[in-house]
Amino acid sequence: MDPALAREIFGSLGGLVEIGAASEAGSQALSDVSVADFMPRHRRELDQILDAVKEIGNFTTAVMEITEALGWFNEHEVTSASLLMWSGGIEEYSTSLDQSTIPRHVLRMGLDLQLAQLLHALVRIGTRNGAPIEATSRRITTAVTLAANLGGNHDTDTPRTVVRMWRVKFLPDLLMPSSATPADEKAKLREYSRTLEAMTNGTRTWKTADKVPHHSATGRQLSLMGDLSRGAVSPPAFAKAWLDCRRRALNEGDQVAEALSRRLDQVFYALDDYPIDPAFRETGDVTDAELLSVVVNALDQIRHDEEPRTGST
Questions:
Q1: Which of 253, 220, 238, 230 has its CA nearest to residue 291?
Q2: pLDDT in tens, 162-213
Q3: What is the predicted pLDDT for the residue at 252?
Q4: How far is residue 174's CA from residue 196's CA, in Å, rounded to a whole number?
Q5: Helix (H, G, I), strand (E, B) or coil at 112
Q6: What separation in angstroms does the CA of 57 have from each of 64, 102, 121, 125, 290?
Q7: How many CB atoms lie within 10 A of CB 263?
Q8: Separation CA 79–CA 32 (nearest Å)
Q9: How far apart are CA 12 and CA 166, in angstroms?
Q10: Of 41-45, 86-90, 111-115, 291-295, which gets the smallest average pLDDT?
Q11: List of residues 6+ apart from 302 with CB closer than 8 A
């Protein structure tokens, strides 16, 4: 993976560290803002973000060590010039800014801009490494949520807002017919846009399968899995209907807890290698029997996940 993309990510995170430190300092003079004081309180958040970044980019240890070379997370002076840079020059530079606190709207602009740029860099990595879009989007959402906290914003609506800002700032130039973006990359960007919107809209989240409404797209996915396990639907018919429901679930914003999501992902990954039309089946493709086995196993795991836990006596 191109280390330049890693530098873009680490750069935005460096900006968020400075913005977070300045925000947390409150009414202190900018000269008193200390990254060294800020980092111990937020090292866990940063480490979680970096873990997600490493997974998303499949980065090597050597690439991740770029963070140390850049020095953004080590003690250094936070200046008005750097904060204005992170905010895209929302205010004109003045030496008087160094003598006082930075205006809140500058920090807010810097936070918004760096979060949008961070998300864009993560999506670009996702479109290039071929990882499953849904799983990658989940990691991106986690990274952006933690990065917002690092920058001083704990609003639960922030990830959804960042997705909207990212779409407005970056996607039109990449998706318009006149764009030089390759067709396959456009398709992935559109899928990321739909998936990230669904994951961050916060309209519905179900912790267990029994809480999922039967009429919902996710409920229909679970019903179809039961139908296949009982032989009430053929594997090809199941595959077509289940994938249609998955697309509808993303478009309608269905959200499920991590354990249930993992079980549904198992079925999706199997279907990714399952040819609905037998005429296109090749050696190594998932067979009808293998698809049935994956679905039955996923249902068993769902039931196991939802069994009451009893402590040892």
A1: 238
A2: 999 999 999 999 999 999 999 999 999 999 999 999 888 754 568 789 889 8
A3: 67
A4: 17
A5: helix
A6: 10, 34, 10, 6, 30
A7: 22
A8: 10
A9: 14
A10: 41-45
A11: 209, 222, 260, 263
Return the amino acid letter for 263.
Answer: R
The residue behind tokens 């989940």 is 138
183-200 helix and 133-150 helix, angle to the nearest 10 degrees? 60
The letter for the amino acid at 169 is K
Chain centroid to CA 251: how far?
16
pLDDT at 99: 62
Are 226 and 279 a contacting pair, CB within 8 Å? no
Q: What is the pLDDT of residues 222-240, one digit of tens each?
A: 999 999 999 999 999 999 9
Work out the number of other CB atoms within 10 angstroms of the CB of residue 59. Answer: 21
Per-position b or e across 185-196, b if 16+ CB within 10 A of its CB: ebebbebbbebb
Instruction: Please tell me the distance from the alpha carbon of residue 36 to that of residue 309, in angstroms, as a whole number.
Output: 43
Asked if residue 230 lies in contact with residue 273, where contact means CB atoms within 8 angstroms, the answer is no
The number of beta carbons lying within 10 Å of the beta carbon of residue 306 is: 14
Q: What is the CA radius of gyration of the chain?
A: 23
Copy the structure tokens of residue 55: 């997974």
Q: Which tokens go with 101?
A: 């606190």
Mean pLDDT in residue range 26-48:
83
Q: How far apart are CA 304 and CA 281, in angstroms?
A: 33
